[in-house]
Design brief:
- The protein is of the alpha+beta class and 911 residues long.
- It folds into 6 domains: 3-253, Bira Bifunctional Protein, Domain 2 (BirA Bifunctional Protein, domain 2, 2-Layer Sandwich); 271-476, no CATH class; 502-582, Elongation Factor Tu (Ef-tu), domain 3, CATH 2.40.30.130; 591-744, Threonyl-trna Synthetase, Chain A, domain 2 (Threonyl-tRNA Synthetase, Chain A, domain 2, 2-Layer Sandwich), CATH 3.30.980.10; 756-794; 799-910, Diaminopimelate Epimerase, Chain A, domain 1 (Roll), CATH 3.10.310.
- Strands 1, 2, 3, 4, 5, 6, 7, 8, 9 and 10 form a 10-stranded mixed β-sheet that branches. Strands 12-13-17-16-15-18 form a 6-stranded antiparallel beta barrel.
- Helix 7 packs across helix 10, helix 12 packs across helix 14 and helix 19 (587-611) crosses helix 20.
- The radius of gyration is 37 Å and the shape is globular.
- 45% of the residues are buried.
- It binds zinc ion (2 copies).
Length: 911
């Protein structure tokens, strides 16, 4: 293996010199300003042409003919189709096939990790795609730089396994640009080095008039590992052509947003009464292009200063003109990103994808509010959907769901604001300032954006320029929980030396008994042995389905799990390798697990039909007694909806539909069924197991299922909870377990009927009467108690003791239900005394409670807390308190009268 260091690769001419450069006389130059190498056909060029080395020179002066976004996409795709590439449909913006990222941030991410690692064939090779991508790291720049978008389309041609590489890639990129009219000497290929996700390689940045239109990555190495790289056997061409930027350069508009969304921007400006200072914005974009605006507040200030110098304007005036334009730009970007996120199945919530969708929705509402047009949100969303419906008809299908979710979010937002005002005011008056941590906390816990916080405090707060991207980042890295994956906790175990276990529970899930050969016996941490067999009927824990139990040679199987392709059986007793053993399933348990698992799929199908495509599985568990399914949904379910879902599940069960299980090539399955397959999370491997309930539900799933839905039996939901904002948990039971559940309910009712000594049909009436009787009784009891207490208080007053020091003591027993009632009565008595002490006891059940109060001179003689502590210690309990007030208790309630009496007499004698 020849491991190379970066110095031996990244800056080498041969890494970047391609056939076209040699044949057509391109020259390699070193940029006079940034020192980076680039390739040009123009021998007089001295700089790389990319800001900050040079400025955008296409604004107001486009080098090619005007094109809109649909035209650019179609031209690109058909250009590469004509050159042997197969057109591939876009992937969702939510990366459902991966468990390491939330969103599709680049076209290559569609093919990671299975295609790039060589395990799965690409869907086509070479291929061309235009992939909508969502990214959050530049969130704070969006609207301000003219070129940053949260959502953009990345057009790309990809080639895997060496079908072509650098020479062809650069030539294709060059020919594409020429085909849309870009002149040769406007093009610069700048050298750079790319690394990510365990791969690396040289790349050419394609710059035209200062704008990076494409990046051509030549993925040639694995690494770095300890700073070194290994050449890949199957090299990958990873390109990315920004569709938005192509549209922008073709129009030469002041910003990329003006090029992409002219109609919407016109509408937003008209509604908010804004003029469009296009010359100022053009200048602003050119200057902003030279600075990275996320680098801190000073950069925006610098941009404004430079623009005001150039245009001879007051910086304040520049800022006043620019700020509302930045807002309409951000709105135009965010609203489109929201449509793609929600349209691809994200439900706004406070976790993962949902968190980021909510952030964009809240920010859009806030920006609209600042412009005084917040009522327009829904109308803007509708407009945007009809704009994208031509190339993306699926967004139109989702229109009702998208609008409903956003309306719901809007309501929540206003509720948040209402509560937030007080929270912010309290925090501000307590601390006198608001820090960055406060701002983050106010957003994370209360949904309040910095603009709101400023409004509520009435003070200008220094908001970090990377505030939004930082909070987005915190929520971007969290991975999706793989609910249906088979992942072992014991991955460190080396199972590679064993043959893969033959999985008979897949071949025939109805197999209850089989003989198998013991391949090896591993020592177990607990009692018993861990068996590796040549074949097994025991399903290992995975995909939310619990492991099977049963017997091997009559000994109990306690747990089963799978590591790699090997199934491990934890069994009681001793075994030896080479032995043939008899395996028997606990069939009652297994068939019930199968029923519950198939029912989970039936339920998911019912929910998606009833509520829409935003319903995605967020978790699932199948045990013998019950199963539960968590799904994304923005509202709680009402009783009618729950019953409707039950009915539709029972109908599908009674229709006895077929449940088909097939192993399919990943590509074929994705093409045939779409990414809805990955309901249970990402699944590994070249081939995936597809479980299909005829015309109802299709999922990639590794569980065991019944053959026909009829075998599931009666379906009953037992509980529905909202486990978090945007996620609903449904617990249910099927077959015999559902019947048991109904019987339990029946038993409860029967018991209530017999306790109330009534008939079933009169139960509610009898219960209501009991409740109202009880209320009456309670009232009467309270009255009686207060009468008794009056008498007891009289008695206490009668036996008042006055010590030699002239301190008056009231003491005795009263009736009370709790300490508060006791303290109230003690208070009443204390008022009647000048320098007084009150000690009261009460029996609550078997136990004793004691309180004591003192005032005036009594405080210097007696300590109420100490008094209570001493009395209670004699009752085998404890207590304490201050000089003025003591509370305590003990278990020996029956001794209370004697103990108090003796204690008081003793302190009187002592004083
Ligand atoms: Zn340069
Ligand atoms: Zn499943």
């Amino acid at each position: 293996m020849n491991m190379l260091r970066k110095e031996e690769l990244a800056s080498r001419r041969e890494q970047y010199e391609v056939e076209m450069f040699r044949e057509e006389g391109w020259v390699r130059r070193k940029c006079a300003k940034c020192g980076k190498y680039f390739w040009t056909i123009d021998p007089d060029r001295n700089d790389c042409g990319e800001p900050p080395c040079a400025e955008y020179s296409f604004i107001g002066n486009p080098p090619i003919r005007k094109m809109d976004w649909n035209e650019v996409r179609e031209k690109f795709l058909s250009f590469f189709e004509r050159r042997g590439h197969e057109r591939v449909s876009r992937y969702p913006v939510v990366a459902r096939w991966r468990d390491d990222v939330l969103f599709t941030g680049a076209s290559i991410m569609c093919f990671q990790p299975w295609v790039t690692s060589g395990e799965v064939d690409p869907p086509a090779n070479p291929l061309v795609i235009s992939q909508p991508c969502v990214r959050f790291p530049d969130l704070d720049n969006v609207g301000k730089t003219g070129r940053h978008f949260t959502m953009f389309e990345m057009m790309a041609h990809h080639a895997f396994n060496n079908v072509y590489f650098k020479d062809e890639t650069v030539r294709l990129g060059f020919e594409w640009l020429k085909s849309i009219g870009v002149k040769e000497d406007d093009i610069v290929f700048k050298e750079d080095w790319w690394e990510g996700g365990g791969n690396a390689g040289p790349d050419h940045e394609v710059i035209v008039r200062g704008l990076e239109l494409a990046t051509l990555v030549h993925m040639a190495y694995e690494g770095p590992v300890n700073g070194r790289y290994l050449e890949m056997k199957n090299k990958v061409v990873d390109t990315g052509y920004g569709l938005n930027r192509h549209v922008w350069i073709s129009k030469g508009s002041p910003t990329g947003y003006d090029a992409m969304f002219p109609k919407l921007l016109k509408y937003l400006r008209a509604e908010s009464g804004l003029d469009f200072p296009s010359d100022l914005i053009s200048e602003y974009t050119k200057v902003a292009g030279k600075y990275d605006l996320s680098g801190g507040r000073s950069n925006r200030t610098k941009v404004i200063e430079e623009v005001s110098l150039r245009l001879d304007m007051d910086p304040k005036e520049v800022e006043m003109e620019v700020t509302p334009q930045e807002m309409v730009y951000a709105i135009s970007d965010h609203t489109r990103a929201i449509i793609f996120m929600l349209g691809d199945g994200v439900v706004p919530s406070n976790a993962r994808e949902g968190y980021l969708a909510r952030l964009l929705i809240r920010r859009s509402i806030r920006l609209l509010k600042s412009l005084g047009i917040e009522d327009l949100l829904i109308e803007i969303i509708s407009k945007r959907i009809s704009e994208v419906k031509d190339p993306f008809p699926e967004m139109l299908d989702m229109e009702d769901e998208i609008i409903e979710m956003i309306s719901h979010e809007q309501k929540k937002y206003y509720a948040t604001i209402k509560k937030g005002r007080e929270i912010v005011k309290r925090l501000y008056s307590k601390k006198g300032k608001i820090t960055r941590e406060d701002l983050e906390k106010l957003y994370d816990s209360h949904g309040l954006l910095p603009e709101e916080v400023m409004e509520f405090t009435g003070k200008k707060i220094d908001v970090p320029e990377d505030f939004l991207s930082k909070i987005a980042e915190k929520h971007s890295s969290s991975s999706r929980e793989g609910q249906e994956q088979t992942r072992s906790k014991k991955v460190d175990l080396d199972v590679k030396k064993y043959p893969k276990t033959e999985l008979l529970y897949y071949t025939d899930p109805y197999l209850k008994e089989v003989n198998a050969l013991v391949i090896d016996v591993l020592p177990s941490e607990n009692e018993g042995s861990v068996l590796i067999l040549d074949r097994t009927i025991f399903y290992p824990e995975g995909g939310g389905q619990e492991a099977d139990t049963g017997k091997i040679n009559g000994r109990k199987v306690k747990h089963v799990e799978k590591v790699g392709g090997v199934v491990l059986h934890l069994v009681e007793g001793k075994f030896s390798p080479g032995e043939v053993v008899k395996c028997q399933l606990d069939w009652e348990r297994r068939i019930q697990l199968m029923r519950h698992h198939t029912a989970t799929h039936i339920l998911l199908g019912a929910l998606r039909r009833k509520f829409g495509k935003h319903i995605w599985q967020a978790g699932a568990h199948k045990s013998e007694n019950y199963a539960r399914l968590d799904v994304t949904h923005y509202l709680p379910l009402n009783k009618d909806e729950i019953r409707e879902i039950e009915d539709s599940c029972n109908r599908v069960i009674m229709e006895n539909r077929e449940v088909r299980t097939t192993w399919m090539e990943r590509n074929e399955a994705e093409r045939k069924y779409g990414f809805v397959l990955y309901q249970g999370g990402a699944v590994p491997g070249r081939k995936i197991r597809v479980v299909e309930i005829e015309d109802w539900d299709i999922e990639a799933c590794g569980g065991t299922h019944v053959h026909r839905t009829g075998e599931v039996g009666f379906f009953k939901i037992s509980r529905v909870d909202r486990i978090q904002d945007g996620v609903i948990r449904i617990e249910f039971k099927v077959g015999p377990k559902a019947v048991d559940y109904i019987r339990e309910l029946e038993d409860t009712i029967e018991e209530a009927v017999s306790l109330l000594n009534t008939k079933k049909e009169d139960l509610i009436q009898a219960l209501s009467k009991k409740i109202s009787d009880l209320k009456d009784t309670k009232k009467k009891y309270a009255k009686l108690m207060s009468e008794i207490n009056d008498l007891l208080l009289e008695e206490i007053r009668d036996k008042k003791i006055t010590t030699k020091d002239g301190i008056n003591i009231f003491y005795g027993l009263i009736h009370a239900e709790n300490d508060k009632e006791m303290l109230d009565l003690a208070e009443l008595l204390l008022k009647e005394l000048d320098d007084g002490l009150v000690i009261l006891g009460a029996r609550i059940g078997e136990k004793a409670r004691v309180v004591s109060l003192s005032k005036g001179r009594a405080k210097s003689v007696f300590h109420a807390g100490e008094i209570v502590r001493e009395i209670c210690s004699k009752l085998s309990g404890g207590g304490g308190g201050s000089k003025e007030k003591g509370i305590g208790g003990g278990p020996k309630g029956h001794e209370l009268p004697r103990v108090i009496e003796e204690y008081v007499l003793r302190i009187c004698e002592g004083s």
